[in-house]
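Margin note from the TA: students keep mixing up input and output lines. Inputs are the sequences; the output is the structure of the whole complex. Example:
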Amino acid sequence: MSKSSKPGIKIPVKNGIEQTVRTLLNKALGHSIDALLMPVKVPSKDSYAWILMQDSDVVNDASPMAAGMPVQGAKALKSLTRKGGGSLRVAALMRPCEVRAAIELVKLNQINLENVVLISYDCPGALPLSELSDNFEAAEKKFKVLLSSRCFDSPDVKPVCQFCTGFSMGAADIHIGLADGDTGHLLLISGSPKGKAFLSAAGLNVDEDLSAYKKQVDLILKKKTQKTKEIFQAVQPMVEGLENLAETFSNCIGCHNCQSACPICYCRQCYFDSKESKLEPAYYMEKAEKRGGVSFPHDRVLFHVGRMSHMSLSCVSCGQCTDACPVSIPVAKVFSYVASQTQQAFEYSAGKSVSEAIPLKEFKEDELQKIHEIVKSAESQESPHE
Amino acid sequence: MNKILITDQGAEQSVVEVLRFLLDNKKVGGVLTLRQTSKKGSLDYGLLTRSEELDRAVPLMPVMPANAAQILSSLTPAKKPIAAVVKPCELRGFVERIKREQGSLDNVLTISMTCGGVIPLDISIKTSKNKLTPKYYEQVKAGEIPENIRPTCKTCEHFVPMTADITISVVGEKGLDSTCRFILNSDKAASMTEGFGRIEDGGLDTKVLDDHLKKRQTKNKNLLESLKSQLDGLDGLVDIFGKCIGCHGCSRVCPICYCVLCDFESRSFDQNVTFYEEELTQKGALRLPPDTLFFHLGRLSHMSFSCVGCGQCADVCPADIPVASVFKKIGENTAALFDYVPGRDVEEDIPVMVFKEEEFKELGE
Amino acid sequence: MEKAFIPKITAFLCKWCSYTGADLAGTSRLQYPPAIIPIKVMCSSRVDPVFLIRAFLKGADGVLIGGCHPGDCHYQSGNYHTRRRFAILQSIFDSLSLETDRLRLSWISASEGPKFASVCNEFTDKITKMGPNPTRKNIFL
């Protein structure tokens, strides 16, 4: 976040928010920026694809604020910059959760932001992918209304979006503020020296007072925090105890779509797809004999809890997992619930800052004292029988 | 003429009793069958070793949570004999996997059925099981194609199992609620079921099945017609696969795609920024992540001729792309080049593993 | 004046026969078009159909595989497999109404310099008439 007390500028909305953004970015194209990364409607006009563009005709066809999120933007950035190098200066327009995922992927050495300007916007939420598939035109219309009316509490967006407290400015270099209700203008807020430079290159000097805007954002945040409590209270009984957890995931067919769609799960070969997790035929039979039977997909709950243990510290609650699930398991709600607790344990916030190391990558010699105490008391007791 | 086992109970119950017989008489160490597991009645495959576990078994449920071919690969080579109740396409898929050294039929008693089709996953999870099946069986018993089954099932011409030890007669069986006929196709089948019940001479009703086949063939022709207009060159392909999100769920649930690390997920096709810069200069714009269409065309070139048309891929697709119909159609064409039918015979070589010195004379001049 | 369209044709040539044949065409001063971009492989059967698809989707106007005549493969049976794979890919392209004519398989032995040149000339002519591959322009691939 910029240290300046007035790091914003208001610009008038001309022909809608998206067109205003397109005009602004088109101006910068070829000057401070070589290419833009934005969603564009696919030829069949029933979904969006991330397109890296230099051609201003393509910019005019782009949908900067897409109704849904078929592919997580951080994944698009990852495929472009993972190997680093090159001199292409890119501006990427993404949702706040996509920016958060990108920040986490930087820390996981999967994205290089050196030549990338990240631009985010106050996000009304995304509509579920299934809604786009069912009737794209209607979904697009619905979302445009949310955007233009600056609605941030729609019950129609994905559940994770409904309780997203990260809907506003995060670590992006530039943030487009829409939450102050002034439908005639939008705010361009600089979040970093890179962002400030981009704006001044576009002839925009930040001098706007943001206190009114921040007040509005805080009001919305209060509602979202309340919603978080509600939703997590509903999730708790779904996952407390092995029986409930197994029941929640009982429809799981082991397709691993949730893992593929997740921006954080970048492993080419997930541990749970590797040879190590494939067991000998005799093992299944032995297990079946011991218990009377064994289910397939095998180790269903292990996959999900295992995935949680691997990535929940970096979970940004984008909801791609639920969108991708073919049997409508509310994966995102469950994972967000767990992630909020694991992240809180380390006072860590996924995607907040590149300089905040992922808790598993570092340690303090004096921390988590409570765990020491738990272990000490266990040692002094008799070991429990099997 | 075959030997058939006839029962005086409804089909589902009869199958459960056969499985119970096999377990209780130690003919097998375990049985693989569909069963309802959770409070909400979720369906999955279970390897059961005790007959008490059969209480929640639903062997004939027309739903396919996973293609059992993958499960059979995990369970074989089997040291102890097992019996498996699977759909014809799952069995064909397993035969294709065996040809790729991913399992074995030794010690496996395969039980399949003349298949009326499978209900898509998104419908089956939303509907309670007792609401799901009445209409379905009404139509199947009458030899009709049920309304709410996978598109690839409606057009499937291989609904009679090809290599099963036992074939349960389901399609066109009017008396399915009160009797069940098991056609014993092998000596293994006969010896393992000896002592279970009434054996007679008989077989499948070829007339009923031929009539049903004609209906499927008509549907297949219609599907081909509608696909032809969609599969119209590059633009048509981009229309169909344009909204692919690259999750690769289709290949992960495919019974044929067994590669632990898929070529298209490996480093082979990684690109660096300079590559993108060049492409950007040429095209003015490009899609990220790249290679959406490439994945599908590549997968077709690698496995289409072995596609058994199960439709698991389309069921799993988050973008509702009709993957199964495209792959099944292309698969039929590429297999036809070699008069090949995937899953027909475990001894029949995969077309790309063999060759004839004199063939395709017109290629290469 | 608009520049004439010079296609880009990726040619996978097996080292023992076709690539040597290409060399011979060169040393014999036989003309063949600059459209051909040769890639040497040890055997035509090294070519996974995926390579052809990749070249095609990345904008190659034509893709050619050159191998030994059936029966003459340096590795005994490689080219028989190449032939089957090519037949499969052709069938896939046909079924999808993609321009199958942009794919070509040719048996060219080490001594067939003239054949290499004539195949290249003929193929390049055909591709030039077909025009640039539409994949060059499509950004949604």
